Amino acid sequence: MNILKKGFTLIELIIVIAILGILAAGLLAILDPIEQINRATDTKYLTSAGEIKNSVERYYASKQYYPWCTSAGCATYRAPCTAARSRTAFATGGTCAAAVLTELINTGELKTGTTVNSVINLEVEAGGDPYQLSWVPASKNVKTQYAAVVGNSGVYVAPIATDACATIGTAALCPNTSATCTYCLFK
């Protein structure tokens, strides 16, 4: 009597499992899940900043002054927006950015209940115009999107803590332990 055995031997199964494990590890290294999460976070910040920028522009179109000002020409600032070239975070109570967010919601330019992550900052120039929205990017991909010209959206190096969008970012400077690389979205 001749019995035929069909199937894989234990050695063959171990070899197949090892090959699949190596392929899975290689795929995981290529996809870099932490980088994917960071990219998603940066995309969320870019979307939020874009919504704020659009609502500020709609506000300006209807009132002829920005929400951090109280009249045309920005002769006076809305409290607590007291100084030009000051950078403040959204979602932080008592700041200019929080007051702007409240004004945009109260005038219907943003939905009621809109919240903005406190990592997004508002920086207003003298006279109320221009302005920038900025944040420190998390993903390696966004950190390499250097601005080529001042005033273009992209990565900048903050020379001082209160001035996020002044110096154009370069590969030699970002990321750098002595400088903060900031993504700036300009008006």
Explain the overall architecture.
The N and C termini lie far apart (87 Å). The chain has 4 helices and 6 strands, in the order ααβαββαβββ. The chain has one domain. The radius of gyration is 25 Å and the shape is elongated. The chain has helices spanning 10-31, 33-63, 96-106, 140-143, and strands at 86-89, 121-124, 131-135, 154-158, 167-168, 180-186. A hairpin with an 8-residue loop joins β4 (154-158) and β5. By secondary structure, it is an alpha+beta fold. It has a 6-stranded antiparallel β-sheet with strand order 1-2-3-6-4-5, covered by helices on one side.
Q: Layout of helices and strands, plus pairs?
A:
Blueprint: H1 10-31, H2 33-63, E1 86-89, H3 96-106, E2 121-124, E3 131-135, H4 140-143, E4 154-158, E5 167-168, E6 180-186
Antiparallel strand pairs: 1-2, 2-3, 3-6, 4-5, 4-6
Q: Which percent range describes the beta-strand content?
A: 5-15%
Considering DSSP H and I runs of 4 or more, what fraction of the residues is helical? 25-40%
- The helix-and-strand class reads alpha+beta
Helix run count = 4
- Note poorly predicted spans: none
